[in-house]
Amino acid sequence: MPRVISCINGPTLNLLGEREPEIYGAMSLKDIGDLLSEEAKAFALTVEMKQSNSEGQLVDWLQDARKNAAGVILNAAAYSHTSIALHDVLRTLDIPVIEVHLSNLAAREEFRSTNYISPVVKGSIAGLGPTGYVLALKALATLIPSN
Ligand code: CA2
Q: Which of 52, 53, 55, 103 best tests ligand 1's pocket when mutated (most atoms within 8 Å of CB)?
């Protein structure tokens, strides 16, 4: 199994750092990817950063990860609260998946408390900003067998 972590990000996360920094922080998604790649070196892992606004593309990337990655960091953004398609594909993965949200879902609107992702992942991190992605990487490093 390649020591690749697929970091998959959903709709509008391409605008990170440009709008609503009070909720989502000042870092861009590229900044987060660079941070993850730097941290991953210590574990001999590489990180592939992906973002799409399309639900079907996220499903395709998760199907790819099933074959080609050792673990997944997933911020499905708004699809977390709506997507049975993502729920279903996640059920097919044997590799560990950690769900990340930059903001604290429990402290936000009621509709964000519905989550189709959380029941079918190894664990979830919310409310810690970009640090959540780094913690997810560190968790995956403990879950992935060394070659
Ligand atoms: O807190 C998170 O990471 C979220 O997954 C972000 C989603 C939201 O729908 C989830 O409930 C929680 C929204 C991502 C929107 O990204 C933006 C980026 C910059 C400016 C505005 C929105």
A: 103
Ligand 1 atom nearest residue 127's Cα = 1
pLDDT given for residue 66 in this prediction:
96
pLDDT, one tens digit per residue, over 87-133 is 999 999 999 999 999 999 999 999 999 999 999 999 999 999 999 99
94 φ, ψ (degrees, to nearest 5):
-95, -15
Of the CA atoms within 13 Å of residue 91, those in its CB half-sphere come to 8
To the query of whether residue 81 is one of the catalytic residues in this protein, the response is no
Q: How far apart are alpha carbons 6 and 46 in whole angstroms?
A: 9
Q: Are 48 and 6 in contact (CB under 8 A)?
A: yes
**Residue of the CA atom closest to atom 22 of ligand 1:** 12
Q: Residues for the chain: how many in total?
A: 147
Which domains, from first to last, does the chain contain? Answer: 4-143 (3.40.50.9100)
The whole-chain average pLDDT of the chain stands at 96
**24 Cα: distance to centroid of ligand 1 (angstroms):** 7
Which residues partner with 125 through β-bridges?
100
